[in-house]
Amino acid sequence: MRCVPKTLKSRTRRVPARVRRRWPTSQPSARSEGHSGRSEHRSVYSRSYLPHLDAARIVQGITFRLADSVPRSVIAHWREEILLNRRLCTDRARHEELQRRVARYEDAGRGECHLRRPEIAALVRAALLRFDGERYQLLAWCVMPNHVHVLIKQEQGFPLAELVKSWKVFTAREANVILGRTGMFWMREYHDRRIRDGAHLNRAIVYIENNPVKAGLCERAEEWAWSSAAGREVE
What we know:
Elements lengths: L2 E3 L11 H4 L22 E5 L2 E5 L4 E8 L5 H16 L4 H16 L10 H13 L5 E8 L3 E8 L5 H20 L6 E9 L3 H17 L17 E3 L1
Antiparallel strand pairs: 1-8, 2-3, 4-6, 4-7, 5-6
Helix pairs in contact: 4-5
């Protein structure tokens, strides 16, 4: 069976009133909305220890995580292994196995898991939907307790790093207000992966929307309110 989007009820769901009241005076800055002056795409490049691909009109799967979701010692180990694999030209299978280990670690729900709070999850959902159809096409998404999966088609003139920054800066600021905390909310890095073809796209959507099921958070994907699965119907 094929899942097809319907009018997303989630577009009309609102973030908490106390946060919404702040928005007229707390809208994202030009920088946080992805307008820091850079509109060119950077093709293939590396930042920190992860490789990135940035190009117009390609489909990308993106994952970004809370700052406390992975301890620094684990990140250091992953960094060393990824860099070693790169130097040795290790085959794709080994690199993908490392990414699977990262995913299993995330699904264990480590850290404070601030995204479990509905008002925080609602902030992330609102940020993702805000420029859908304008700066990117949002194909699938899921807010997990300590990380977020997003599947988009990039548009010309909106580099990937700027898009991710726009999501992070605004949600971090508002989430810290809700939580009464300061400091880093999101991990600095993010992971992106280009979708190769239609079959790969279908697998990516299934993976993203079934992540809560795999993690034991619900029995069916559509039961998880914080993902695009809640706004799909099966033909």
